[in-house]
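User: Hi! I'm working on a homework problem where we have to compare a predicted structure to a textbook description. Could you give me the structure for the chain below?
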Amino acid sequence: MCQLARKLFAKEAAMNKRALKKALKQSIPILCSYVFISMAYGMLMAENGYPWYVALLASVIVYTGAFQFVLVSLLAGGASLGLVAVTALLMNSRQTFYSLSFVSDFRAMGRRMPYMVYTMTDESYAVNCSLECDDPDRQDVMFYVAILCRIYWLLGTVLGAGVGQSLPFDLTGIDFCMTALFVILLMDQWAHPERRKPALVGGGIAMICLLIFGSGSFMLPALLITSAVLVILNRREVKQA
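Assistant: Happy to help. Predicted structure tokens:
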């Protein structure tokens, strides 16, 4: 019995090691982007007077790159908790649909399911979609990718906050990283013709709201209206299909 248990443990350890190696390989591109983007976020937090542990705590609790940059601006501008909550919900609602794509996989992962849902990002979703369905290590690789991505982001956050607090140079303009991030996401979306409609809808509504509400108040109504319009358009496409 003990010998059988040892064999099973050795087999499981070998499978975990193999899955971890695959996850490391798959997550290298995410490492290259996450560390630098999260460093920019940490530096932005430092520029606004927040210590490194506050930046780290925000990354632990929130863990959504685009909104974390927006969160800094909202906090600095004294935004209400309601505005912060609604903005977070609208900006990250797409993660719900990401998770729905892997419901069967996540359910099969047992106690790891809540963590997988919580840590789903654009990048980890892309990696998960690239994994072979018949790969015996598929679910373990997905789990390790989620862990590694989180480590990359937290590491970059601490490094960026430390650099921003310790090095005496002007950080003015570092918040442009947020704009650059959204530009990259838009370019990626525009590269696929079937994904251009949401970008056009969002851009058009944002311009109209900017003219009506002004630069200081247009974001929330633009997000609300854009989300409503996209939901209606999606329902029509589903009915036509």
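For your comparison, note the following. Residues 2-47 form the longest helix (46 residues). The radius of gyration is 21 Å. Good luck with the assignment!
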